[in-house]
Amino acid sequence: MTKAELIEKLSEKTGLSKVQAEVAVNTTVSSIQEALSRGDKVELRGFGSFRVRQRRARMGRNPKTGTSVDVPAKKVPYFKAGKELQEIINQ
What cellular-component terms does GO give this entry (predicted)? Predict the structure, then answer.
């Protein structure tokens, strides 16, 4: 499902105009992004949780040349599905 399809579905189910549904989706996504950029955890009960994980620095390999490359430490977003979402998927 794309963002446009999500907006369409929200508009149909709630009776909001597409513009209002787009604002709601964009606000939700940007709020999650802002919280994660601050290092906060975002939990949506029944759906899942978003967190930021720290990856350590490591030695990588350039697949084309085979030379070793330093891969710096970085933060990555992580999603863990909630119990209800897991149950729905596994039916």
Answer: cytosol
Token pair 């709020």 is found at: 31
Number of domains in the chain: 2
Asked if residue 47 and residue 31 are part of one domain, the reply reads no
Query: How many angstroms separate the CA atoms of 61 and 67, rounded?
Result: 6
Instruction: List, for residues 52-78, the tens digit of each pLDDT value.
Output: 999 999 999 999 999 999 999 999 999
| Pair (10, 47) in one structural domain | no
For residue 89, the enclosing domain spans 41-91
Measured distance CA(56)–CA(51) in Å, rounded: 16
